[in-house]
Design a protein that fits this description.
The protein is α/β, with parallel strands linked by helices. An 11-stranded mixed β-sheet has the order 1-8-2-3-7-4-6-5-9-10-11, with helices on both faces. Helix 1 packs across helix 5. The longest helix has 11 residues. A hairpin with a 5-residue loop joins strand 9 and strand 10.
């Protein structure tokens, strides 16, 4: 697949969907930092995504979904903390949630995993992509251990190789999402990002060391 450039516009949606369904990796804007996306059931795309980032395979990739309804197909076990987080004003938005999954319900590409980290983004084009193709593996567009660049040109200079498709456009923010681990009780903030501890504490019991 040859690298191509598109704009962050709904008119380009069919090309983006086709690239993902062909097993490609797409660089695209999110509501936080720029991201790299691949369909989780396309092993070639997943392998390429890890290679582009030079990311250790032991580190699982986060998942984006369009709605909370898509979580059922992933086998996500909804706890009171997760339900409170999903009902907060930070969803859709810059809140990533780590949750346990039911191995008897989860799809084959999650076999062997006991938990996942998922997010519902607040980005119109990305949400429409997720509605059409289903859950995506989406991770920050940076080489492992490096900060995420603010524009596609700088991303391409940093990655190990070029992704299959580049969707031009600025990221929604220069900071990553906040990650909360809801496999513990109370939930634990594992990464502070766009949402502060104080903001989260207004809607659910959450601890941060």
């Amino acid at each position: 697949m040859t690298e191509a450039h598109l704009t962050n516009n709904l008119a380009d949606l069919p090309c983006i969907v086709d690239a993902l369904r062909a097993g490609g990796v797409v660089l695209l804007p999110t509501d936080t930092v720029l991201g790299l996306a691949a369909l989780p059931n396309m092993q070639a795309g997943v392998d390429r995504l890890y290679a582009l980032k030079d990311r250790p395979r032991a580190k699982a990739l986060p998942i984006m979904v369009a709605t909370s309804a898509q979580l059922a197909d992933l086998g996500v076990i909804l706890t009171p903390a997760i339900e409170q987080a999903l009902a907060s004003p930070f969803v859709p938005g810059a809140l990533t949630i780590a949750a346990e999954i039911d191995p008897q319900i989860c799809p084959d590409w999650l076999a062997g995993r006991r938990e996942i980290a998922f997010r519902i983004p607040d980005a119109p084009l990305l949400l429409e992509i997720l509605r059409q193709v289903g859950p995506l593996l989406v991770t920050s567009a940076n080489r492992a251990g490096h900060p995420t660049p603010a524009n596609a040109t700088a991303v391409l200079e940093q990655l190990m190789a070029a992704p299959d498709l580049v969707v031009e456009g600025p990221a929604g923010a220069d900071v990553v999402s906040t990650l909360i681990n809801c496999t513990q009780s109370p939930a634990v903030i594992e990464r502070l990002g766009a949402i502060s501890h104080a903001q989260l504490a207004e809607y659910l019991e959450v601890w941060h060391g």
